[in-house]
């Protein structure tokens, strides 16, 4: 197994996404890696309404995304990670995470499992399943919801 130098984790501010942040922080601390916490947002309600998938929290505007990142960073730092960055991108969670992973040449992407076992997730896809298919780096899907 190769070392992980840059680890990306997504958060939408939900309790389940903070469980993914916690797992990512512990792994980043173990590898002395840089943890990059990412958050997607929609620029307006019209864009948010266009998405067929409703398995993630809809975040309208950059300010809410920045607040989620600040709380995610604070949470991550409780688990011994010393190098924490944040990144925010407009668009769907999948688009945003893929952009953050590619821009940072990440070695590992960590996401929660929300939506993967739902009917909508099975019919339309889910964030964890979609990023696993699209990512060029390792993907860890953390069990955050039953």
TrEMBL record:
It comes from the Bacteria. Gene3D superfamilies: HUPs. Transmembrane segments: none annotated. Residues 4-143 form the UspA domain. PANTHER family: STRESS RESPONSE PROTEIN NHAX, UNIVERSAL STRESS PROTEIN UP12. Belongs to the universal stress protein A family. This is Universal stress protein.
